[in-house]
Amino acid sequence: MRLEFRHVSKVFGSKAAVDNVSLSIEGAGFIGVIGRSGAGKSTLLRMINRLGDASSGQILFDDADILALSGRDKRDWQARCAMVFQQFNLVPRMDVASNVLHGLLGRRSTLSTLFNLWSEADIRRALGILDRLGIAEQAAKRAEALSGGQQQRVAIARALMQDPAIILADEPIASLDPMNAQVVMDALKRIQVEDGRMVIANLHTLDTARRYCDRVIGMRDGRVVFDGRPDQLTTGVARDIYGADASFSEAATSTEIGALGDDQEYAAAMLGD
Amino acid sequence: MTDIAPPSATAEDYLAQTRRKRLYGAILLAIFVAMMASGFRLADARNAGGFFEGLHRFFDFPAEIFSEAIAKWQNIPGLLWRYLPSLIETLNIAAVSTLIGGIAAIVLALLSTRGLSLWPRAIPVFRRAMDVMRALPEIVVALVLIFLLGVGPVPAMAAIALHTMGALGKLFSEVAENADLKPVEGLGSTGASWFQQMWVGVLPQVAPNWSSYALLRFEINIRASAILGFVGAGGIGYDLKTALQWGQGRYDAVVAIFALLFATIILVDHFSDRARARLVRGATAKEGRI
Ligand SMILES: Nc1ncnc2c1ncn2[C@@H]1O[C@H](COP(=O)(O)OP(=O)(O)OP(=O)(O)O)[C@@H](O)[C@H]1O
Ligand SMILES: [Mg+2]
User: Fold this and answer.
1) Is A93's CB within 8 Å of B190's CB?
2) What is the pLDDT of residues A152-180, one digit of tens each?
3) How many helices (H) and strands (E) does chain B have?
4) Of A109, A187, A268, B11, most Cβ neighbours within 10 A?
5) What's the CA gap between B190 and B41, in Å, rounded?
6) For this UniProt entry, which segments traverse the membrane (chain B) (predicted)?
7) pTM for the whole structure
8) Neighbour tally for B115: CB within 10 Å
9) DSSP state, B231?
């Protein structure tokens, strides 16, 4: 399992949101992408899933160029490369179990979609995944009736239903309170470790990156400016990544001192940006 | 978040539809009056007088119709029964054309909505196509098709369906424009096809409002279908025309047909008003699964 970026750029108008990025990610692991707002984190992640197309360059997965895929092949790739969003992106009026089953849509025929025919085995699997994430008892509720943290776990369950090689998470905890943020990050981490998957997560705060990641990629103005272990993320490096965004780095570095309690620590970290 | 409150533009269209509904009612009435007037002119061609002299006959004629109908009141129940199949044909034409037009409108609406279209660059093409369909009056399309295909319900259906496609397509698209795109993006990321994204991600959001518009259109199409009967599209409009042309001696039939038509329109209006109120309330209260 190897994901490789080769000189990937994405241009919006005259602005390069992602600027000539080359990277290689090998095997299972928890990869964090950090950077200030507008650094190009979402753009980078969405290109992997093909929600957005690159302007130039190649993204290879096990040596196949996924940017060249189209039609059925592209959908097959998307099915193997699950995505979790900041706003959960569930179908709010449908029940939780159905939302999890949507993870299979990429592999289903139009006809079975039309009549909503899920096999009993599929339904059992979906319920099993919900159980693993601790929200089995919510299965019959409408997704919109759940709390943000629960909805994000449903979204993770949908991703797991895809049985993906890669899970992409675009700021998965940015709209959650500190308690729920921890529950969701713990769930993502556990899945990554237990299943041996590759997780790439855009993270808003340095603190979260340090706590959960095996490797951190720092972006600034569309370029990779840091790529290393979380313990290499010194205050100086953080300033490189976040630039003049002093309030952010201060909020993030103050938690580094470790003098704060758990909740306060999260609260301070969430202050950033 | 998932509610689709009708935006003011949609409200405008809704009012426009209501006005259109009234217009059809008025046209139906006008045709009725015109037919009666022409019958009156034919009958009284010999002693045609001035306008004001003749004006009282304008009221005499309905009086004549009603007095004849009252005189032959025993015939009315039988006539109601006799014209029921024609009424059903008229309703059928309206229902089938609303259904066909509505399904086509769904496709056109999705293809012409930003954020949902399969081919975003072709959006203006689909929009213009719907404009043209709306601009063509049903009666003109029906007359052309009757000329080409002959008398029968098919030209009427095609004409009404075409107009419905354009009219509902625009309204559907405006509803869909307000749909939440996050579920669509979420489904897209799993590898779901465009159809699957629309079916699972968009339809549950727009279904209440779409159904409400479709019902309103059905009401309008009943009137349109009755009117098209006059130009040879079959159904109860055709019977009415025949009875009116026959003139004296058939006025009981005229009254029976009008009674059927008005009763139907009032009934359908009533039930569709209630159904639409429930649909829209259900969408706001989010009760039950769609
Ligand atoms: N669809 C788009 N059209 C035009 N410009 C865009 C589009 N999407 C992103 N951009 C621009 O590309 C740059 C990178 O955006 P991106 O969303 O990838 O940043 P980000 O790092 O995810 O930021 P955030 O932390 O705010 O989510 C920004 O300057 C943004 O304005
Ligand atoms: Mg982003």
Assistant:
1) no
2) 999 999 999 999 999 999 999 999 999 99
3) 11, 0
4) A187
5) 72
6) 23-43, 91-111, 132-150, 250-268
7) 0.80
8) 12
9) I
B 14-43: CB under 8 A from A? none
- Does B286 sit within 8 Å of A93, measured CB to CB? yes
Question: Residue B89, exposed/middle/buried by CB under 10 A (0-12, 13-18, 19+)?
Answer: buried
Is B144 within a domain? Answer: yes
Confidence at residue B62, expressed as pLDDT on a 0 to 100 scale: 76
Instruction: Kindly state the average pLDDT of the residues A182-197.
Output: 95
In three-state secondary structure terms, A69 is coil
Q: Whose CA is nearest to atom 11 of ligand 1?
A: A17
Shortest alpha-carbon distance between residue B183 and chain A (Å): 5
Class in CATH terms, A2-271? alpha beta
**B71: containing domain:** 65-280
The interface pTM score, or ipTM, of the predicted complex is 0.87
H or E segment to which residue A42 belongs: helix A41-49
B117 CB contacts (<8 Å, ≥6 apart)?
Answer: B110, B111, B123, B126
> Residues 6 or more apart from B250 whose CB is under 8 A from it?
B243, B244
* B57: in domain: no
Residues with CB under 6 A from ligand 1: A 12, 17, 35, 37-43
Question: Which residues, in sequence order, are bridge partners of residue B21?
Answer: none
B17-29 in b/e burial notation, b at 16+ Cβ within 10 A? beebbeebeebbe
CATH number of domain containing B113: 1.10.3720.10
Number of domain units in chain B: 1
Q: Is residue B119 part of a domain?
A: yes
The Cα-based distances of A79 to A150, A215, B94, B134 in angstroms read 23, 25, 44, 41
Strand partners, A216: A32, A228
Is any Cβ of chain B less than 8 angstroms from the Cβ of A75? yes
- Digit-coded pLDDT (tens) for A55-90: 999 999 998 999 999 999 999 999 999 999 999 999
Task: Note whether residue B11 is domain-resident.
Answer: no
pLDDT (0 to 100) of residue A235 = 84
Backbone angles phi, psi at B109, to 5 degrees: -65, -45
pLDDT at position A244: 62
Across the beta sheet with A2-12, what order do the strands follow? A15-26, A2-12, A56-61, A64-65
Domain edges within chain A? 2-271
Is 80 exceeded by the pLDDT of residue B233? no
Report CA dihedral (A69, A75, A81, A82) to the nearest 10 degrees: 150
The count of CB pairs under 8 A between chains A and B is 92
| Helix B251-285 with B203-228: angle, nearest 10 deg | 170
Q: How far apart are CA B180 and CA A95, in angstroms?
A: 17
- CA pair distance A224, A18, nearest whole angstrom: 9
Using CB atoms, pick whichever of B2, B182, B190 lies closest to residue A102.
B190
Cα gap A44→A54, rounded to integer Å: 9
Confidence of residue B289 (pLDDT cuts 50, 70, 90): very low
When pLDDT is cut at 50, 70 and 90, the band that residue B42 belongs to is low
